[in-house]
Amino acid sequence: MVDWHPLKRWLFTTNHKDVGILYLFTSLYFFVAAGLLALTFRTQLAVPSNTFLQPDEYNQAVTTHGLLMLLWVLTPLGAAFANYFVPIQIGARDMAFPRLNALSYWVYLASGLLALSSFFAGGGTADWGWTTYAPLNSTEFSPAVGGSMMGLALMLLMASSIVSTVNFLVTIFRLRAPGMSLMRLPLFTWCWIFTSLLMLWAFPSFVSALSLLVADRAFGTVFFTSTQGGPLLWGHMFWFFGHPEVYVLLLPGFGIVGDLLSTFSRRPLYAKKIIIPCLAIASILSFTVWAHHMFMTGISQSLLEAFNITTELISIPFAIIVVAYIFTLSGGRIRFATPMLFAVGSLGLFIIGGVTGVFNSSVALDTGFRGTFWVVGHFHYTIVGGGLTGLFAGLYYWFPKITGRMYSERLGKVHFVIYMIGFNLLYFPMHLLYDMPRRIFTYDAISGWGPINLIITIGAFIFGFSQLIMFANLLWSARRGPEANQDPWGGYSLEWGVPSPPPEFNFPEGVPVVSATGVTYRPVALADGGHANGSYGAEYGEEHWSRWPIVVAAGAGIALWGLLMGLPALLLGTGILTAAFVGWGHESLRGREVIEAIGEKWPFDRLENVSLGMWIFIFGEIAFFGTLFGAYVFLRMNSPLTGFVWPRPGEVHNIFWGGFNTIILLTSGLTMVFALTFARRGSYRGLQGSLVATFALGAFFMVNKAFEWHELFASGFTFSTSTASGIYYVLTGVHGAHVIAGLVALTYVMVKALKASSTTQASGAVEIFGIYWGMVDAVWVFLFPLLYLL
Amino acid sequence: MIDEAKYAAVYSILMLGLIVELLIAVDRSAFGAFAGAAILAIAALQAVFIFLVYMHGRFGPRPVTVFAAISLLTVLPLFIALLYSVVMPHHGSLP
Amino acid sequence: MPALAPSAEQWQSLFTLYIIAAVIVAGAVFGIFFYFLVRYRRKPGVPEPKDAPRVGVMADRGNPALAAILTALLVALFFGLTLNTFALNAFLQNPPNDPNALYVDVIGFQWGWRFVYPNGHQIIGTLKVPVANSTCTSSVRGCWSGTVILNITSADVFHSFGIAIFKIKRDAIPGRVNQAWFLADKVGIPDTVPQYLEAIRCYELCGTGHALMFADLWVLSQDNFLSFYTTGA
After folding, report:
1. Residues C87 and C107 in one domain
2. What residues form DSSP beta bridges with C152?
3. Residue A330 sits at the chain C interface (C-beta within 8 Å)
4. In this structure, are C36 and C117 located in the same domain?
5. End of a domain among C49, C73, C93?
6. Same domain, residue pair C116 and C170
7. Which of A149, A285, A322, C112 is deepest in the core (most CB within 10 A)?
8. Looking at the domain assignment, is residue C1 inside a domain?
9. Does residue C76 belong to any structural domain of this protein?
């Protein structure tokens, strides 16, 4: 690493390895926090009629344990390894967008701090379970502002994840080294691809559900409190996200397990060409099973039977992968080092979780299991057993690569034994408690649940404290452990071919070139003569840092906090955010180059990095608006059954005003594509004129919309009038926010066009913005008829 | 020149579609049950044009079309289930 | 302990079926897994396999037929399990067409259960029902067959009504009425049949009183139930 002051390095780094380490420490910090919360409620449940926690404290502890573990621990821990190792495993020098990468981390930290501060927001934090069912999630039943703050923290986290997803997908598809075909990628990277794709489609759905919830809580809409929307709307929207989310949690650890089984048994992965398609099928199927979380809601039985079947089907690809994993061991020479122990343990625990999952697929058995500890046992075996244990295996496995030192094997093995004992004492007995409801703060002795709960609590403490062994081992060994050689395990992924820790640009000997016989390195003439410790390829400058990501995160966090807690903070946060965006824009204009592809790019050979990034982002937007449209359809079709009459076309909204605004927006789309043709043809004036016209038309659209809203409010059509009004305001409001964000970005494009030495230099930015602007138009083209004409 | 003509042509199609939508909305009775479907079909067509032409850029979006197909595949079950679950049997009356 | 209701009995049978399948499948999988772990552990004198992974190299391996075989086996297994599940589901979801059934409205609220009988009687915290009576067939009138049909809803938030000993459950959702039914085989009250104490519970987090949202079950003979029904005592 470059010789930087530690503060500058850790606050401003954009190096993927450093960002990975930041994720590692932060996710483990949240792990301890969420784990301690668990120990508090396990203490409360250890004996009948306990008074260690008050009921509301218990509910807050249970809720935040879930939210923190799922969203601030598991995936970020996976992201820590993904950040550090995916670029190396594909043979790249860094991520496609290093500053965005740092931004993802800092926004993740800001969102976590916002989540934790919700405890202190007066009235406590969210206490409605991580599943946030309606109408308990409304201000009527849960007025504490901490709940809303948790909602905002979640939305901020989603922003971080979506940016990270785009970054990883572009990186993996476009920055692979020569010869590194997709099939040659290690299983960890493959699983990270699928994790990212799942996040890309599932997380925006969560954001749309949260948007409706925040609208209810902060703006008085009635989506989840009225009979037209209500709990079923939340159920569908939340679980549409919620089920793919569990595979987001599982896959990174699951992928590590595959690579480790292969490495430590000294044999290639069995049927890798089957495993990858199985992961793809499972990922797609994961979007078709969500209503198994709604088996008892009384909706159509034939629909639920269909979900029963799809849920069973999804276990098939996983079963194939599990068997392939096991067969990997055959003919091997297995070395039971700590990473392998955890990998084997993870696989075993996952098998148990998977088997109990089949029970949960049964719509009939669910009358026994729904809402009981059986379910808690099942998902902890799969997520903690399959997911977290696999990630811990990865931590031991990659520790020598990250630090250059070896941990204590003996302590590692001790940790493993106590971990497995604690885990099974903690989670296995839960399967016996299938009569005990979940999330109850106490129970009385007569229920007979006391002894088993005591065993579970003892297991919890053993399990929790076993992690201290690992922390002590790793922290001590990082400083004082014996030096590790470059490839202590005999791994096959590219990180084992570079020094420990890897130098700044990963490959000191040049571009890795991969073939069937192994990897060679092709030294590259350095463009600027610098970077003796291993840069190659394009003109990446020494600006491997930027001060703006942390500032953006700080601004966003403060602004969101201020949205609920006070105008001064909101203004401060927004000010910081604006300054940060301007600063970032300046930095970009100063000629930072994007890392370009020099190797494998299939199937995106002809699409450039930033273009591909924008397209991937667009598809996240499709999922986001798609679920909002889904909510609209649900509300619209459900209304007659509840006696609410949806406004007829023309009754509330002026069709022609809306039509006129549509013409304005669509014309701005035309001027935008003209800007692109002018840019390509070198017409400076044409480019400027078109951009200004686009801006003017977009601004006019928004002004028009503001007047429209004003008129509607004056006529009594407000946020809380009905679900019809609510969904109108949310849809047009969210779309309007996209227009405003577009206008801000357009300002940057106009400045860039102004400063560019040639129009072709600016045409890249113009094209990217044009894609975004096209999406804004395409969404409106659906919004207009849905809201005004039908 | 060819590019501008292409975009102008798409723009006219979009405007034409908008006009037809407005006409249908104003005079629904002539279309009866098909009014809604017709309007949505026009909207879908408009979106396809915007997607394929305006957002086309220099490089063909063949792989991104695959993305689009997959995203429809996953959002579509949601739509279907939402619609289907709306048709829910109610038993008894609210006490 | 004999089942207290046909629903529980049938649920138990299906559960047992799934357990048997689970034990067989998990047994086979773990069997092979542990066998390989032991058989192929590193032993001195045994050389590294020729296709051992090394940096940049991962050979192809494996028989794709594995996927087809596993899929076929699992589909066959699931077919069997699912048929049985759907059969039990049909039983649990569809109350019998019984003119002598007792209809009770169940309203969950923060934090208790209110039961409303057809004659307007209301109780909070105790559900009193007639025991199953096989002589009261559909051709007979003036008796209760013991079939209890519940119309379940909520007065406020999302609750879930469950009778664990009968394996009956249905969400109690505001604005909706969901139906469940059962038949209780054994006469008793909490003092005589301890399982009837707090037999009814809430299974969805509904606020700070979620843990305390239970109700007792009283299964009464025809005469006792008649006297309760007419006098409210």
Report:
1. no
2. C106, C178
3. yes
4. no
5. C93
6. yes
7. A149
8. no
9. yes
CB contact under 8 A, B92 and C178: no
CA distance A77 to A34: 14
Domain boundary among C93, C118, C137: C93
pLDDT of B1 > 90? The answer is no
Residue with more model confidence, C153 or B95: C153
Per-residue pLDDT at A595: 61
- Is the CB of A408 inside 8 Å of chain C's CB atoms? no
Contact A452, A45 (CB under 8 A): no
Continuous segment of H or E residues that includes residue B50: none
Inter-chain CB proximity A781 and B21 less than 8 Å: no
Q: Which ipTM value was assigned to this complex?
A: 0.96
Amino acid identity of residue A203, one-letter, is: F
Each residue's pLDDT tens digit, A189-214: 999 999 999 999 999 999 999 999 99
Closest CA–CA distance from residue C86 to any residue of chain B (Å): 19
Q: What is the DSSP letter of A319?
A: H
Please list, residue by residue across A529-539, b when 16 or more beta carbons sit within 10 angstroms of its beta carbon and e when fewer do.
eebeebbbbee
Q: Do A677 and B4 touch (CB under 8 A)?
A: yes
Using an 8 Å CB-CB cutoff, list chain A residues near B68: 619, 622
Q: What is the pTM of this model?
A: 0.94
Q: For chain A, give every domain's residue range.
A: 6-528, 609-789
pLDDT value of residue A299 = 86
Residues of chain C with pLDDT under 70: 1, 233
Between CA A649 and CA A656 the distance in angstroms is 11
Contact A298 C176 (CB under 8 A): yes
Q: Are residues C203 and C179 in the same domain?
A: yes
List the chains bordering chain B where 3 or more Cβ pairs fall under 8 Å. Answer: A, C
Overall CATH class of domain A6-528: mainly alpha
What single string gives the DSSP state of each residue in A132-200? T-TTTTSTTT---HHHHHHHHHHHHHHHHHHHHHHHHHHHHHH-BPTT--GGGS-HHHHHHHHHHHHHH
Domain ranges of chain B: 2-91
Rounded CA gap, A734 and A592, in Å?
Answer: 32
Q: Write out the CATH class of domain A609-789.
A: mainly alpha
Contact indicator for A94, A56 with CB cutoff of 8 Å: no
Q: How far lies C205's CA from each of A141, A710, A741, in Å?
A: 12, 40, 39
The Cα-based distances of A245 to A196, A239, A242, A387 in angstroms read: 11, 9, 5, 12
| Per-residue pLDDT, B51 | 83
Surface of B (33-72) touching A: CB under 8 A: 36, 39-40, 42-44, 46-47, 50-51, 54-55, 57-64, 67-68, 70-71
Residues facing A512 on adjacent strands: A521
Residue type, A420: M
Q: Based on the domain organization, do C152 and C65 belong to the same domain?
A: no
Distance, in Å, from the CA atom of A152 to the CA atom of A137, rounded to the nearest integer, reads 14
Tell me whether B87 touches chain C (CB under 8 Å).
Answer: no
Residue range(s) defining the domain that contains residue C40: 6-93
Q: Which tokens in the block code for residue B45?
A: 């067509």
Phi-psi domain of A331 (left: phi exceeds 0; alpha: psi -120 through 50; beta: other): left
B/e letters for A255-279, b = 16+ CB within 10 Å, e = fewer, are: bbbbbbbbbbbbbbbbbbebbbebb
Q: Please give, rounded to a whole number of angstroms, the shortest distance from the CA of A620 to a CA of chain B.
A: 9
Q: What is the pLDDT of residues B11-32, one digit of tens each?
A: 999 999 999 999 888 888 777 7
Q: Do A770 and B55 touch (CB under 8 A)?
A: yes
Which residues of chain A are modeled with pLDDT < 70?
Answer: 1-4, 525-543, 589-597, 606
A 430-469 residues inside an 8 A Cβ radius of C: 435, 437-444, 446-447
In tens, the pLDDT along C135-161 reads: 888 888 888 999 999 999 999 999 999
Residues C81 and C144 placed together within one structural domain of the fold: no
